């Protein structure tokens, strides 16, 4: 029987198999720890906090205390992460607590590596009941920086608030941890270890995900572009998890030149970097793309591989435009969408570029709060295919997470489709040609985001309260400089599928010409408060499409700073990041 099981596992030269009969479970007494409430995307703290005695163990046990038994007893769970410092120790602990609580099997990415999109894909493909992702996403890693843990549910989506609230409740009453007495698992070789009724399988982090990408996209179309000598691409993995995916996908499969990948080795501290693909932190990529005679296409992804940034030669594609352009071109360029997308959605602060595509294609359209989890229900209900957020997140219903590599492959598909009949030496349709053509058809939504990172929480909260008070006193027709108010509110969302309601999702001022200024506090920081200001203005006139966004938006940006009294409340003169 063991032999049969063994041969069912994809054989690999490094496949191992070990078995031990007993599974002894120890019950360890513990005490509640304050502050284990999850934010926008899992529990995120400094790694030193997680390394304190029982901090992580308490949260994991609280999670099992929150799940219905049928969701984990004898069930399959997935475990992986972005390769950051502390992941390997954390993986051993999570495996032991899973075993102690009666989980049947844990499937772990080799070396503890799995991108967030890969976890979502594997949960769906292998019909797992859920999965753990060890990542603080785009936050820096290393002994002095951040660590995080997320739990995704059985259709591959981030656990809903009902579950995370329950986990938090259980962290406040926890009294014992069930820890299986098993040895540390060797994460470095693919194979299965069995301990009584519990087993651990170490899998290749790339293969299931790559299979899915090959179903979604036409790889031979992409290859026809990527292997051209007159097309050069650069992918910056930022020393984070997509380093493990970039070579097998872009180089081995699609025949990009090996020097197309930069910062391609995942490192525990991301090479001292801040693995957030934006114009400030993805410096290496930005320098390459803005150099003389730089590549034709550039992209980067974040710590755990769900975010993406796309650039053309000396040209930045703002994420709000990126999702709109993918949606507008998906049907002709991407086989997965050959019958057309079912519906489109964006988060509230994301620009309205996507709305215009939905209108033209006559598709259902949804505006949800910030946070990928809000797209899942719409996808499960079959009314949403392509969605995105201004925060460098783009994806589709192929999984239930945003997906950095997917976004890159989507862009390459669009460029490849536009150039498929181009002979060598003929000028190729470029990224900027595609974007400008899109603006000419739909109009341009100028968009920018100002981030003020690690402000004092008190001042930031006071500012938001001040703005809430202001909107309660505002009315349609109020004059704000040259702008006339259409509406001012704190965004509230009712999920059309399950009727759940979330409130206080961002203070927005919408003006009669469609311009918007929006204020939110980030839900993903780990220290202080990060204030975000989102500024948007629609420009239908093609002769005004070539302005720098900062120039075009200057009056609105000034207005946002005045209206919010940001400087008074936070003491900040300048943002830390401008997108
Ligand atoms: C994570 C989530 C995104 C969300 C983003 C917002 O990346 O997965 O869905 O848009 O955080 O972060 P913020 O810091 O603005 O709360
Ligand atoms: Zn991420």
Bound molecules: 6-O-phosphono-alpha-D-glucopyranose, zinc ion
Shape: globular
Strand content: 15-25%
Our count of domains comes out at 3
What's the tally of helices? Answer: 19
CATH architecture of the largest domain: 3-Layer(aba) Sandwich
Strand arrangement within the widest β-sheet reads 1-9-10-5-4-6-7-3
CATH class of the largest domain: Alpha Beta
Which secondary structure elements does this structure contain, and how are they paired or packed?
Layout: H1 2-8, E1 16-20, E2 25-29, E3 43-46, H2 47-50, H3 55-66, E4 76-81, H4 87-100, E5 105-113, H5 116-125, E6 130-134, E7 146-152, H6 161-171, E8 176-180, E9 191-195, E10 198-203, H7 207-216, H8 219-226, E11 233-236, H9 243-253, E12 261-262, H10 283-289, E13 297-301, E14 308-312, E15 315-317, H11 319-333, E16 344-347, H12 353-361, E17 365-368, H13 373-380, E18 386-389, E19 393-396, H14 404-418, H15 431-442, E20 444-455, H16 457-473, E21 479-480, E22 483-490, E23 493-494, E24 501-502, E25 507-511, E26 516-521, E27 529-539, H17 549-552, H18 554-564, H19 566-570, E28 577-578
Parallel strand pairs: 1-9, 4-5, 4-6, 5-10, 11-12, 11-13, 16-17, 16-18
Antiparallel strand pairs: 2-8, 3-7, 6-7, 9-10, 13-14, 14-15, 18-19, 20-27, 20-28, 21-22, 22-25, 23-24, 25-26, 26-27
Helix pairs in contact: 3-4, 3-6, 8-14, 11-12, 11-14
Zinc ion is lined by residues 116, 137-138, 302-304, 306-307.
């Amino acid at each position: 029987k063991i032999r049969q099981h063994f041969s069912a596992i994809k054989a690999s030269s490094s496949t191992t198999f070990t078995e031990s009969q007993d599974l002894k479970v120890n019950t360890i007494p513990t005490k509640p720890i304050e502050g284990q409430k999850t934010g926008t995307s899992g529990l995120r703290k400094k790694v030193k906090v997680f390394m304190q005695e029982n901090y992580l163990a308490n949260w994991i046990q609280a999670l099992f205390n929150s799940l219905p038994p049928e969701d984990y007893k004898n069930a399959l769970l997935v475990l992986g992460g972005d390769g950051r410092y502390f992941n390997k120790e954390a993986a051993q602990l999570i495996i032991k607590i899973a075993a102690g609580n009666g989980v049947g099997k844990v499937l772990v990415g080799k070396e503890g590596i799995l991108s967030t999109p890969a976890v979502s894909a594997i949960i769906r493909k292998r019909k797992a009941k859920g999965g753990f992702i060890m990542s603080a996403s785009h936050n820096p890693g290393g002994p002095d920086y951040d660590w995080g843990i997320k739990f995704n549910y059985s259709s591959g989506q981030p656990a809903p608030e009902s579950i995370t609230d329950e986990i938090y409740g259980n962290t406040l009453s926890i009294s014992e941890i069930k820890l299986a007495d098993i040895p540390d698992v060797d994460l470095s070789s693919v194979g299965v270890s069995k301990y009584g009724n519990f087993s651990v399988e170490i899998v290749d982090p790339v293969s299931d995900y790559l299979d899915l990408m090959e179903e979604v996209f036409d790889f031979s179309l992409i290859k026809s572009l990527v292997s051209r000598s007159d097309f050069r691409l650069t992918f910056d993995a930022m020393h984070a998890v997509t380093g493990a995916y970039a070579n097998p996908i872009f180089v081995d499969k699609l025949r990009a030149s090996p020097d197309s990948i930069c910062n391609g080795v995942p490192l525990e501290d991301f090479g001292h970097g801040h693995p957030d693909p934006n114009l400030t932190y993805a410096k290496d990529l930005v320098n390459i793309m803005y150099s003389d005679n730089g590549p034709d296409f550039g992209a980067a992804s974040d710590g755990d591989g769900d975010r993406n940034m796309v650039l053309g030669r000396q040209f930045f594609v703002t994420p709000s435009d990126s999702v709109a352009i993918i949606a507008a071109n998906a049907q002709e360029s991407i086989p997965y969408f050959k019958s057309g997308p079912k519906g489109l959605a964006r988060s509230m602060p994301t620009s309205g570029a996507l709305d215009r595509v939905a209108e033209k294609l006559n598709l259902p359209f949804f505006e949800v709060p910030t946070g990928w989890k809000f797209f899942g229900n719409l996808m499960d209900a079959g009314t949403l295919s392509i969605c995105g957020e201004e925060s460098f997140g783009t994806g589709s219903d192929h999984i239930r997470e945003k997906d950095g590599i997917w976004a890159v492959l989507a862009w390459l598909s669009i460029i490849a489709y536009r150039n498929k009949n181009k002979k060598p030496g003929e000028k190729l349709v470029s990224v900027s040609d595609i974007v400008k053509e899109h603006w000419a058809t739909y109009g341009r939504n100028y968009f920018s985001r100002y981030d003020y990172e690690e402000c004092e929480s008190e001042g930031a909260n006071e500012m938001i309260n001040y703005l809430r008070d202001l909107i309660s006193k505002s009315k349609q027709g109020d004059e704000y400089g040259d702008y006339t108010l259409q509406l001012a509110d704190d965004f509230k969302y009712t999920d059309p599928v399950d009727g759940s309601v979330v409130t206080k999702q961002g203070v927005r001022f919408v003006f009669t010409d469609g311009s918007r200024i929006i204020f939110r506090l980030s839900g993903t920081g780990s220290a202080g408060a990060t204030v975000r200001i989102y500024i948007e203005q629609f420009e239908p006139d093609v002769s005004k499409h070539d302005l720098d966004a900062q120039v075009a938006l200057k009056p609105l940006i000034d207005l946002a700073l005045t209206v919010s009294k940001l400087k008074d409340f936070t003491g900040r003169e300048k943002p830390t990041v401008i997108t």
